[in-house]
Fold this sequence. Notes:
Elements: E1 4-10, H1 17-30, E2 34-39, H2 42-45, H3 48-51, E3 54-57, E4 60-62, H4 63-70, H5 74-87, E5 91-95, H6 98-104, E6 111-114, H7 122-129, E7 134-138, H8 144-156, E8 161-166, H9 181-189, E9 193-197, H10 203-209, E10 215-221, E11 235-236, H11 237-254, H12 263-272
Parallel strand pairs: 1-2, 1-10, 2-5, 6-7, 7-8, 8-9, 9-10, 10-11
Antiparallel strand pairs: 3-4
Amino acid sequence: MKIFIIAEIGINHNGSVEIAKNIINSVKNCGADAVKFQKRTIDKVYDKNTLDTYRESPWGSTIRAQKEGLEFNESEYNEIDKFCKNLQIPWFASSWDIESQIFLRRYNLKYNKVASAMLTHIELLNEIAKEKKYTFISTGMHTMDEISNAVNIFKKFNCPFELMHTVSTYPMKNKDANLLMIKTLKEKFNCNVGYSGHESGRAISVAASAMGISSLERHVTLDRTMYGSDQAASLEIDGFKLLVNYVRIVELAMGDGIKKILEEEKIIKKKLSPIF
């Protein structure tokens, strides 16, 4: 199975459609299979006291100003949708509230995504699952029982899904990767399992690709020094291109596990074998 590679733009566009387009075009050229965003209705996700809290950002001095500055509106998503269709690369988004999930329906997207933070938002999970679109479910920050509850919702609605092993630290330390969880999730839930990585490098994602993952998601940015909480856990374009190339090499190298002797080996064997 070919690993489905998702370039997670998230909020790394910093509210700029032009930055988003630049990233989309770049990752398409790198070989990404899809791009992903994040959608929030600010007043649904955060309470008033949080939004009124002081926070300096390029958009103002409150958390509200920052969150609103990072959020695309309808006309901007229309532009993203048109751009992705012209490039022939699918886009989708993880919604952080029901209103956002309903908003995304107008674009007839092929995929859905459950962010780790939303794994126990039961109403939202029901809203997503009833669409019956293939859904990627990240599992960071949650117990096996909580993952099981989410899986049961998708099974109840007969909605196709896969889990994604995730460690929700930004950036994740190498020692925390726990890639053997990929095997654990597969065995426990008898489903495809992907990997959503938040490490700063590429080695762990390459290792995950040799463990039978069905999808790989990595945050991508134009410049890791840009403003934003996800930039440090992101790959720049050149790094993402290398990662895609490495993953495709690993896929090719895995083979079928059946012992065989290549024709080239037979020639070498004839030259190197001793005469008995």
